[in-house]
């Protein structure tokens, strides 16, 4: 579904991502892990067209998307849950969810999907009319995931969904991510919490200093001494 080949990203003279290549097959959940500053978020921003790449290609369902504007990607079936959540603070929970469905015109389907989001995150239903800016960090993360799901994506991009959240909130977020993955959604997960990410995924890529240094099945990476020492504190 997604194929990234030789991706390069530069900030001025600094090469943040150096020739990264990876793929995500349809129906897969794939983790991209690494320490802070490894280039994971830059990679995801390039894939979602929030950042222009210095080189390489990004293909989605066989089609080059490196030149498409970001809003077109939503219509093509790609949704991003950004690092830092990015909710609209002065809009209610319901209004934020409706923003996720801005490209759709099927009223009944939109309502059905909102009900589905509320079933995944009952706390959002309780706060449906509350302004997003008044929610807790965990609730805002739930809202960001729910908003992305409202576009009915084929490919869900998640950028550091556990960052800054209490353990119970992290558990709930990943429970929902696993649920939508089991429902058939393709997921690319960028995450610093290597154990959490690999336990949820089928395959993984390890990124260091802008390069992919390890790749393989998630279970094998979890057992790899290099991963255990560098990212699992063992």
Structural overview:
The protein is an alpha/beta fold and 234 residues long. 39% of the residues lie in helices and 26% in strands. The protein contains ten helices and ten strands. The strands form two sheets. The protein has a six-stranded mixed sheet, with helices on both faces. A hairpin with a 2-residue loop joins β4 (55-60) and β5 (63-64). The protein is globular and about 45 Å long. The mean pLDDT is 93.
Brief digest:
The protein has 234 residues and is α/β, with parallel strands linked by helices. It is built from 10 helices and 10 strands. The strands form 2 sheets. The protein has a 6-stranded mixed sheet, with helices on both faces. Strands 2-1-4-5 form a 4-stranded antiparallel sheet, with helices on one face.
Layout of helices and strands, plus pairs?
Layout lengths: L1 E10 L2 E11 L4 E5 L6 H8 L7 E6 L2 E2 L5 H7 L1 E4 L11 H8 L6 H14 L1 H5 L10 H13 L5 E5 L7 H16 L3 E6 L2 H7 L2 E6 L2 E7 H6 L1 H7 L3
Parallel strand pairs: 3-8, 3-9, 6-7, 7-8
Antiparallel strand pairs: 1-2, 1-4, 4-5, 9-10
Helix pairs in contact: 3-6
